[in-house]
Amino acid sequence: MSTPVSSTSTLIRKPLDDEIDVYGLTHQGLVRESNQDHFLISSLRKRMDVHMTSLPADRVMPAGTERLAFLAMVADGVGGLVGGEEASRLTVEAVTDYIVRSMHCYYTADATDDAAFASALADAAMECHTRLAEETEAVPENHGMATTLTLFLGVWPRSYVLQVGDSRYYLLRGEQLTQISRDQTVAQELIDQGLIAPAEASRSRWAHVLSSAIGGPRTTPVVNAVAQDWGYVNLLCSDGLTKHVSDERIRERLLTMTSARQVCEDLLRDALDGGGTDNITILVGRTLRGREG
Q1: Angle, to 10 degrees, between the axis of helix 247-255 and the axis of helix 260-273?
Q2: Is the pLDDT of residue 274 over 80?
Q3: Beta-bridge partner residues of 236
Q4: What pLDDT does residue 181 have?
Q5: Could you tell me the residue ranges of all domains in the chain?
Q6: Which of 31, 47, 124, 274 is the S-S candidate for 98 at Cβ 3.0 to 4.6 Å?
Q7: In this predicted structure, which of 43-52, 190-199, 251-260 has the lowest mean pLDDT?
Q8: Nearest to 283 by CA among 122, 76, 87
Q9: CA gap 129, 134 in Å, rounded
Q10: Would you state the pLDDT for residue 106?
Q11: Percent of the chain with pLDDT strictly greater than 90
């Protein structure tokens, strides 16, 4: 597990609840018979305050006190395998349960303790992996089910991003869009080994073959620590978006966004116009400084 770190040198005032503009959506696409994606956006308090999710309504918990951290995640069930939708749902639920059980950690946590947060998030991913393995053993027809997981944990003024698979996390700082996550695919491994050129990756038959997945033969959680500041825009998505929408188009949309909801809907429209060959999940969040300055 690697933990690249960016940091800020000064403490920045934490945004109030009404200074956070966040939205998420998921869509079946135009080709798939079902939606195997799931997502969740929530605040961590003494309880988990869920804002939006594709999970059943009984997963929603009542609001707590002051926000301690912000949590968002996308899970994309592996297409073509039995139980992909079940795998992504179980994974989002398992992470939710893990975070709720570990909530006391966030009361006293040092937001700059990268190793501690990285270890906790990696443990959450491996617990999800174990749960899927147990489910597969208990329900043989679910053999082979797996999912990606990309998770954002914001502990102002930092964030921690966990990734397993190829669902992506982007950060827009000023006019620069950066893909922070790294695709865990066979194509990316071939690029790293110098066997194919990056420009060939998207056309390769290995482009969407996962080299790491929750529930898969290999699970390698990677955690990045990233500095946050006012005006930064965070985007999490499944590959149903990036199959059809280029990074440059994503950047253009984020630079001209009027709200998180508007840009999610515009990017969804772009993905559908491009073919919509897969399930599409998009989460966007940003901070907007209010009257307190």
Answers
A1: 150
A2: yes
A3: 169, 283
A4: 97
A5: 17-287
A6: 124
A7: 43-52
A8: 76
A9: 9
A10: 56
A11: 55
Which CATH code fits 17-287?
3.60.40.10
Sheet holding 158-164, edge to edge: 48-53, 37-44, 69-76, 149-155, 158-164, 222-227
Length of the chain: 293
Alpha-carbon distance 113 to 86, whole Å?
34
- In this prediction, residue 290 carries a pLDDT of 80
**76-116 per-position pLDDT tens digit:** 998 666 689 999 999 999 998 887 777 656 555 566 678 88
Q: How many CA atoms lie within 13 A of 152 on its CB side?
A: 33
Q: What is the 3-state secondary structure (H, E, C) of the chain?
A: CCCCECCCCCCCCCCCHHHEEEEEEEECCCCCCCCCEEEEEEEECCCEEEEEECCCHHHCCCCCCCCCEEEEEEEEECCCCCCHHHHHHHHHHHHHHHHHHCCCHHHHCCCCCHHHHHHHHHHHHHHHHHHHHHHHHHCHHHCCCCECEEEEEEECCEEEEEEECCCEEEEEECCEEEECCCCCEHHHHHHHCCCCCHHHHCCCCCCCCECCCECCCCCCCEEEEEECCCCCEEEEECHHHHCCCCHHHHHHHHHCCCCHHHHHHHHHHHHHHCCCCCCEEEEEEEECCCCCC
* φ, ψ for residue 278, nearest 5 deg: -140, 170
pLDDT mean across residues, the chain:
86
Tokens of 219: 């699970």
Contact 192, 215 (CB under 8 A): no
- Cβ–Cβ < 8 Å for 73, 152: yes
